[in-house]
Specification:
The structure is a single chain. Helix content is 48%, strand content 13%. By secondary structure, it is of the alpha+beta class. It has 4 domains: 4-138, Tetratricopeptide repeat domain (Serine Threonine Protein Phosphatase 5, Tetratricopeptide repeat, Alpha Horseshoe), CATH 1.25.40; 141-172; 184-257, no CATH class; 272-363, Beta Barrel (OB fold (Dihydrolipoamide Acetyltransferase, E2P)). Strands 1-2-3-5-4 form a 5-stranded mixed beta barrel. A hairpin with a 4-residue loop joins β1 and β2 (303-309). α1 runs antiparallel to α2 (18-25), α1 packs parallel to α3 (36-49) and α3 runs antiparallel to α4 (52-65). The longest helix is centred in the middle third of the chain and has 26 residues, at 140-165. It starts with a helix and ends in a 6-residue tail after the last strand. 29% of the residues are buried.
């Protein structure tokens, strides 16, 4: 869930109060260093208030955190247009259309550039404010609705309730949002709680009775809050431990709740050193690691490479891990990048099962 300051700033953004967004969020940069929404709101608000340099800085970081977010790419494209770099802007709009062929905003932006391609014309539009047509900002009607519609609806609702629905008010209260569906059925029986560990078999982790039960409950709690990576660590801990076979079976079944990871939904970010200490504990856990690629082997249908973890700025090499993608993609050796992959233990340590690659532009951390 988005924290209160960020949620309030988002409401101000929708109302068109861009200076208020900047003044409220700027002191919180360190708190939101990994929040795409923070950098998008800051970047587009800078763009709306004329701070092109600030917009470029914030939006580049927003793109790193979520390079599939079309409004972020559109805002970056507007920065390029303001700087006269229309070729870069066009490429970003084409990137949007490659993923969203029906994106009306990108199509209109390309027509806008085509109709105003002369440098003198673009300069005049920047001076007059006409360039704002390329800014992915809430339209005027939506800004006015965001500012005044809630108060109107509240007043109307209050009048309606006072006239007709006061006796039934209790039945109209909104219900609290439900958690992840299905988790409530995973309950330990009384027998499992009384005898949660076993002495039979081999195991890597020795858990007390209390630790075995708590680990299972933590896995459920992490899944309920969509922290799938932390949940998987707890499940693996149970599977590698002296937990009772029935608890291990339920923990194995819990793996069915794991969602497909992407660059935006990894809540728990484990480091190379975390995984290296105990690879089997992180089996199947998704990680986001930055670095450079080396020893690239492309078979035409799959790609393998060695990721130099932490070496994106050529200053600190944390380790080297083999990465295999079951498909082919373009990766350039020596270019800073970020790889999303799942940990897979191996005889000599572990490797990554590649999911996606994101190139870090301008060598940004």
């Amino acid at each position: 869930m988005v924290s209160d300051p960020l949620r309030k700033a988002q409401k101000d953004f929708l109302k068109g109060y861009y200076s208020r967004v900047l003044s409220s969020l700027e002191p919180l940069t360190l708190s939101y260093r990994d929040s795409h929404l923070f950098y998008f709101l800051m970047g587009t608000s800078c763009l709306a208030t004329g701070d092109v340099g600030g917009a470029a800085t914030y939006l580049r970081r927003a793109e790193q955190l979520n390079f599939r977010h079309s409004p972020t790419l559109a805002a970056l494209a507007a920065v390029h247009v303001r700087r006269g770099e229309t070729d870069k802007a066009i490429q970003l709009y084409l990137d949007i259309l490659s993923r969203e062929p029906g994106n009306v905003f990108a199509k209109r932006a390309l027509l806008f550039i085509k109709s105003n391609s002369e440098p003198e014309r673009l300069a005049a539009l920047v001076k007059s404010g006409g360039i704002a047509a390329l800014y992915p900002l809430p339209p005027t009607a939506r800004r006015l609705a965001a500012r005044y519609l809630p108060a109107f609806l509240i007043a109307a609702l209050a009048a309606f309730l006072s006239l007709a629905l006061i006796p039934r008010a209790a039945t109209l209260l909104p219900k609290a949002p439900s958690g992840r569906a299905g988790l409530e059925s995973f309950l330990l029986t009384e027998a499992e709680r009384e005898n949660p560990v076993s002495a039979a078999g081999g195991f890597e982790y020795v858990l007390t009775e209390k630790e075995a039960v708590n680990s299972f409950e933590r896995a459920k709690k992490f899944f309920a809050s969509w922290n799938d990576e932390a949940a998987l660590v707890e499940i693996n801990r149970i599977l590698l431990s002296n937990a009772a076979p029935s608890i291990k079976s339920k923990a194995e079944t819990l793996k069915g709740f794991v969602r497909e990871p992407d660059f935006t939904n990894i809540r728990e970010k484990y480091s190379y050193s975390d995984v290296a200490r105990s690879p089997r504990l992180f089996d199947g856990v998704a990680v986001l690691w930055k670095g450079q690629a080396g020893n690239i082997r492309d078979s035409g249908s799959a790609l393998q490479l060695d990721l130099l973890v932490g070496y994106q700025d050529k200053k600190n090499l944390e380790g080297i891990v083999a990465v295999s993608f079951p498909f082919t993609l373009r990766v350039t050796a020596g270019v800073p990048l970020e790889i999303l992959g799942r940990v897979r233990p191996s005889k000599d340590g572990f490797r990554l099962e590649g999911i996606a690659v994101h190139e870090l532009r301008d060598g940004s951390p």
